[in-house]
Amino acid sequence: MADELVHYDVVGGTATITLDSPHNRNALSAQLRRELSDSLTKAAADDAVRVIVLTHTGPVFCAGMDLKEARGAGAGDQGVNEFPRILEQLWTSPKPVVARLAGPARAGGIGMVAACDIAVAVPEATFAFSEVRIGVVPAIISLTVLPRLNPRAAHELFLTGDTFDARRAVEIGLLNSAVPADDLDAEVTRYVKALAAGGPKALAETKALLSRPRPATPSDGFEEMLGLSAKFFAGEEGQEGILAFAQKRKPSWVPQD
């Protein structure tokens, strides 16, 4: 559709979700939020989709909430009320999500980057938790950002709202890598292929495992983790993986080149 702000395409097991609202720097308007959430729902439900790539058109990945829509609205009518659903969809998606940034992200845009499993950007991309600069609090995005960031860096950048570059974003844990623009797609493809090599059920369960609270000691978690591990070793997917290893072939779930 010509008037859509989010495009959805599936090729070779990869669902690419593209933010396409460059006129307002891909700000999180009501329409964009709705279409993005719908696309994430579609990807999660599609058995043919193994990996999701979240990307954008235009020079900016996402500028955060649409401030024009926020102006004059009461607390109950703010678009930010719908934003937790999107962050939750990214964070809990059973399919790994890769963020591809060819440009800057701000505020809520960074919250989405942090909610993705893998994030790759060009060196020229910049970032800022700009909320305090306009008198608001980075409250919702803190739930996805703070688990990623070095605590000292989080205090500095949340409180100052200062701009930082992709190199520092890698250093503090926001990005996995920063590569030249000519290498961006190849780097994303490298991650997509690596992720698609994992068993679909194993990937979904591993994502859930990574988000669980850690037990106080390893001993406190061994019984539960033993049950989970044994279940997957004996399960259909695990048995296929073991057989494929023995037969020196790719497991059945790996997309064909």
From TrEMBL:
GO terms for molecular function: catalytic activity. Gene3D superfamilies: 2-enoyl-CoA Hydratase, Chain A, domain 1, Lyase 2-enoyl-coa Hydratase, Chain A, domain 2. SUPFAM superfamilies: ClpP/crotonase. Pfam families: ECH_1. Transmembrane segments: none annotated. Belongs to the enoyl-CoA hydratase/isomerase family. This is Enoyl-CoA hydratase.
